[in-house]
Amino acid sequence: MPTPDLNLLVTLDVLLAEGSVARAARRLRLSPSAMSRALARLRETTGDPLLVRAGRGLVPTPRALELRERVGQLVQEGEAVLRPAEKLNLARLARTFTLRTSEGFVENFGPDLIARVGAEAPGVRLCFVQKPDKDSAALREGIVDLETGVIGKTTAPELRVQTLFRDRFIGAVRKGHPLCQGKITPSRYAAGRHIFVSRQGVDRGAIDEALSSLGLERQIATIVSGFATALALARASDLIASVPERHTGNLRAGMHSFPLPVAMKEITVSMLWHPRLDADPAHRWLRGLVKDVCAALR
């Protein structure tokens, strides 16, 4: 069965509204002969005469009367679909955005981001969920609206990515810790007892590789899953936490921080989202807020 020409819906809507081939032709800026041909096609498609002569005019058939309201509604809905999206009204926006981030991102950038959202769009709610891995399935399936983190090999290639900031690892210890005084050499740093942060529970990373190249090895006293936990332990003990500088700015308040005495590559923290949300005005607004908040906190 051939696919019907959906353009005929507009013609049918005008014909049923005007009840006249001539008036419908003027309204659609067609010639009377072109409108007559369109009516003939409609009759063939629907299997009904639709408009029949009564005296000098045309009257709708029962089938046409049945279709009139439905056709009008379909045309209105179609026009709404093809019409450009209305300008975003933040004051009336009611929506929940789910963000998958690390706990450090929430604790460091979350307060300012929530404050900005509350001031600009009080009907918007942010839902932060944990990020146990780099699997992109949640973004692809629409479970998550936005994600932040370092791009990995498992990141889906179709995702949109925008850089938020570059970060570096630094050391953090409690006030009064021996490393607060004097030059911190690789040997002094390695000689301390360390906290290792790993979501997978491994006990060796890039810092250990850098120390190994110098013939040094550090003692890992404990392994935790997040930077906030590492800093809480370091604040209350003589343990050393090695954490991203910008990711943990607020969390290190009152602690002593220092550059790592070994060469480490910077990391790039980005936000990721699925292409289906790329043109969504509300999502675009949220992305702008996240970028602004991350740029403001240095």
Distance between the termini: 64 Å
Cα Rg: 32 Å
Largest sheet: 5 strands, mixed
CATH architecture of the largest domain: 3-Layer(aba) Sandwich
Secondary-structure content class:
alpha/beta
Question: CATH homologous superfamily of the largest domain, by name?
Answer: Periplasmic binding protein-like II
CATH topology call of the largest domain: D-Maltodextrin-Binding Protein, domain 2
What's the shape?
rod-shaped
**Average pLDDT metric:** 89
Which CATH class of the largest domain applies here? Alpha Beta
Query: How many structural domains can be distinguished in the coordinates?
Result: 3
Unreliable parts: none
Strand order of the largest sheet: 4-3-5-12-6
Q: How large a portion of the residues is in β-strands, by DSSP E?
A: 15-25%
How many helices? The count is 10
Helix proportion = 25-40%
Q: Write down the secondary-structure element order.
A: HHHEEHEHEHEEEHEHEHEEEH
Number of strands: 12
